[in-house]
Design brief:
Length: 319
């Protein structure tokens, strides 16, 4: 649960920066924590997201949404892992759909991090409490390739590779409709949705402006659906799901970004609706991952096989 705190700005606070005003009223929060809340759109002035540098005039109403405390340090759990590769520096996994990558509020255990802490004991010695070794993540219902660092040096090297965009991230997606172009690029600003805080958008996002770039190619066309190959140039949260949905082609069975709403309007006999029922989760699979090895610099590449539920949806479409 989040705590919502409201402040009425007094007249004498006019011409004071927003971040300084809040720092004087939230001694329990560090400056960096306040900045993060502002960046995430959790601070609103008269109902609108604001920047830290915004000057107050007096009389405004400020709302500060403070999320619940982070979960305690996770415990090691003996859970199954699908390992594509492992050496002294990294472990590459084929994540099953339905598995959360790291603990969060309401999900303290049963995650990949819990399994990794059991499998790789030295992970307990570095990189904070709740996300040891995690360089990037996949949504709970997205399957496929995920690389995890086994040491602090490996983590820093992989993070640098992701920042410099020398990592190849290729996905397979089943979507509603057939795009008009065989290949295209979606390049938009990106951030929090202005009305639904848990969602993201490439259309008038709130908070600091970031750029999201997604390259798309059609692999197969079906009746009312398509199989797409998607390459990420940037790696924003929910990026593929948001970009494809806002381009008019939501991913099959996507609950948050329009897939399920699209299916509800289709007749029961629709091939796309039957394929969505066959997979039962967003039809997105991280098929290929390539990156420079953190120690040797050699380029490594891995592919996660298409999971059974994704293949079942494909079989319905192809039939």
């Amino acid at each position: 649960m989040s705590e919502l705190v409201r402040h009425l700005v007094p007249p004498q606070a006019g011409d004071v920066r927003l971040d300084r005003f809040l720092a004087g009223r939230h001694a329990e929060l560090s400056r960096s924590r306040l900045q993060a809340l502002i960046d995430e759109g959790l601070v609103r002035v008269n109902g609108a997201a604001a920047k830290a540098s915004q000057r107050l005039r007096g009389g405004e109403t400020i709302e500060v949404e403070i999320p619940a405390e982070r979960p305690a340090e996770p415990e090691a759990q003996e859970l199954p892992l699908r390992i594509l590769h492992e050496d002294d520096d990294v472990i590459v996994l084929d994540k099953e759909p339905g598995i959360v990558v790291h603990p969060a509020a309401g999900r303290p255990d049963g995650t990949l991090v819990n399994a990794l802490l059991f499998h790789v004991r030295e992970m307990e010695r570095f990189d904070g409490a709740e996300r040891p070794g995690i360089v990037h993540r996949l949504d709970r219902d997205t399957s496929g390739c995920l690389v995890v660092a086994k040491s602090e040096a490996s983590l820093e090297s992989l993070q640098a590779a992701f920042r410099s965009r020398t990592v190849e991230k290729r996905y397979l997606a089943l979507v509603h409709g057939v795009p008009s172009a065989d290949a295209f690029t979606l390049d938009t600003p990106y951030g929090r949705h202005p009305r639904v805080r848990t969602k993201y958008t490439g259309r008038n996002p709130i908070g600091p402006e970031r750029r999201a770039v997604t390259h798309v190619r059609i692999l197969e066309r079906f009746a009312g659906a398509s199989l797409l190959e998607v390459d990420l140039e940037t790696g924003r949260t929910h990026q593929i799901r948001v970009h494809l949905s806002e381009a008019g082609h939501p991913i099959l069975a996507d609950r948050e970004y329009g897939g399920e709403r699209k299916e509800a309007k289709l007749p029961a006999s629709s091939v796309a609706r039957r394929a969505a029922a066959a997979i039962g989760r967003q039809a997105l699979h991280a098929h290929r991952l390539a990156f420079p090895h953190p120690r040797s610099g050699d380029r490594l590449a891995f592919e996660a096989p298409i999971p059974a539920d994704f293949q079942a949806a494909l079989d319905v479409l192809r039939a």
